[in-house]
Automatic annotation (TrEMBL):
Transmembrane segments: none annotated. This is Uncharacterized protein. Residues 1-44 form the signal peptide. The keyword Signal applies. The keyword Signal applies. It holds the Pfam family LRR_8. It comes from the Eukaryota. Keywords: Leucine-rich repeat, Repeat, Signal. PANTHER family: IG(IMMUNOGLOBULIN) AND LRR(LEUCINE RICH REPEAT) DOMAINS, LEUCINE RICH REPEAT CONTAINING 24. It comes from Meganyctiphanes norvegica.
Length: 474
């Protein structure tokens, strides 16, 4: 009897536990079923009218390509019904005669790109009304004729503003005031001919400023005086003929781009720069005579590529005591003379000469390059480069690129054959094209696959090489 009673009591306790567990389990099962049956993020993204819309880790990426006003209105209505925020809103190649006041109402998005969509000044003001959360804005190739200053003041979270290829003609005082967190501003491809002295007041945190491809002739020094954090300044493709003395003082630029600009001033314009990117200077004589390179204590990287330089501007470069990298690629340089690097070559680690017309190299051209590690001479007209010509740099050099030159297969390139075959120099093999030489019979040979005897070298020359600068045991 006791056993039966105990059994009933035990069974009753078990039933009570099961009942209590069921009460807790049922809501969990229902919630799980609701989660499984609910539309997934990818499904919700596909419900938006703009077919390129997708779900990203930070939110919806709404992409509307060649969309009409009706499609956009429907798409934004569908977006508002989603439980996700819009991280990126992209409207491209859409002919919008107008933007209705209500189109963006209720939308929360962090980045907007409108490209080739005929956006007007009034349209932008409508968009900015709902843009309190915006971080990036790109209004590319629209019809914007002036910066919507009042509307911009509300966007204190904005870090990037791109107004490229619009119809802006000038920048007035405080035109970007209120954009306290703006770090990048791009105004490339407008018609800007006038920049007020206080145009950038209020954006002291700016890091990158692109004013390229405008109609600037002069820039007042005061325009950049408050940009103490500016690192990159693009002034290429303008009509600049004069910069005031110390125009960049106090902003410690890392890079300034002045493509196709001519500087007639001999004043110390660039004294504060750490790095200069100067492309498309008209001729080497202008560099030597009209452009005073007055940053001898600062400059480490000088780029003069893609110009029309006919020779190395040695006299203009001799004041550069700390130069580490010199880029002279894609010019019309035909020779490297004996004193090309005299007076400024002691600190240079990298030199780029690719895509020139170089056919002659003097025997002592590289004697002043005591610390050179990287030399690129690809895509030139070099037929002969002996060990004697480069013996001064061979002990330190890590990378030599002589690809795409009409090198002759003879004993003059025995050193190159050795260099390319040395496993310690594999970087030269992996990072460049194959090195080819040409025989007297017009055949092309891959240099590192040849035997030393194929180059026609006397036995004593081969023995000398094996005991010389570069032969390591392998």
């Amino acid at each position: 009897m006791k056993k039966m009673w105990f059994r009933r009591e035990t069974d009753g306790a078990w039933c009570g536990q099961r009942g209590r567990s069921g009460r807790f389990l049922a809501p969990a099962v229902v919630a799980l079923l609701m989660l499984l049956l609910a539309p997934q993020p990818a499904q919700l993204a596909r419900q938006v009218s703009c077919p390129l819309t997708r779900m990203m880790s930070k939110g919806l990426d709404v992409v509307c390509e060649r969309a009409s006003e009706k499609i956009l209105v429907n798409a934004f209505k569908e977006v508002r019904e989603q439980p996700f925020s819009v991280y990126y809103l992209k409207i491209r190649n859409s002919n919008l005669p107008r933007i209705p006041d209500y189109m963006f109402t209720g939308l929360e998005f962090y980045n907007i790109l409108m490209k080739w969509s005929h956006v007007t000044f009034e349209d932008i003001k409508i968009i900015f009304v709902v843009g309190a959360t915006l971080e990036d804005q790109i209004f590319h190739s629209s019809n914007i004729i002036q910066v919507p200053t009042e509307a911009l003041r509300k966007l204190d979270k904005l870090t990037f503003l791109n107004l490229n290829f619009n119809e802006l003609s000038g920048l007035e005082d405080g035109v970007f005031a209120g954009l306290n967190n703006l770090e990048r501003l791009s105004l490339y491809g407008n018609r800007i001919s006038l920049i007020s002295s206080y145009s950038f007041m209020g954006v002291e945190g700016l890091l990158r400023l692109n004013l390229g491809k405008n109609r600037l002739k002069t820039i007042p020094t005061e325009a950049f005086s408050n940009l103490n954090k500016l690192e990159v300044l693009e002034l290429h493709e303008n009509d600049i003929t004069h910069l005031e003395s110390r125009a960049f003082k106090g902003i410690y630029l890392n890079r300034v781009s002045v493509h196709t600009s001519m500087f007639r001033s001999g004043q110390p314009v660039f004294a504060e720069l750490l790095l200069l990117y100067a492309s498309n200077l008209a001729a080497v004589d202008r560099i030597c005579k009209h452009l005073k390179l007055d940053f001898q204590n600062n400059l480490e990287w000088l780029e003069l590529g893609n110009n029309r330089l006919g020779r190395i501007p040695t006299h203009a470069l001799q004041s550069l005591r700390n130069l580490r990298q010199l880029d002279l690629d894609s010019n019309n340089i035909s020779s490297i003379p004996e004193a090309a690097f005299q007076g400024y070559g002691n600190t240079i680690n990298y030199i780029h000469f690719e895509n020139n017309q170089i056919s002659e190299i003097s025997p002592s051209s590289f004697d002043d390059l005591k610390s050179l590690e990287w030399l690129t001479l690809a895509h030139n007209h070099i037929r002969r480069l002996t060990e004697e010509m480069i013996s001064s740099i061979l002990p330190e050099i890590r990378h030599i690129d002589l690809s795409y030159n009409p090198l002759v297969c003879n004993c003059d390139i025995l050193w190159l054959w050795q260099f390319l075959r040395d496993p310690y120099n594999r970087q030269s093999v992996w990072s460049t094209e194959m090195h080819i030489c040409h025989t007297d019979y017009g055949r092309s040979q891959q240099i590192d696959t040849l035997l030393a005897s194929d180059l026609g070298c006397p036995e004593e020359e081969v023995a000398k090489m094996q005991g010389g600068w570069g032969m390591r045991d392998y």
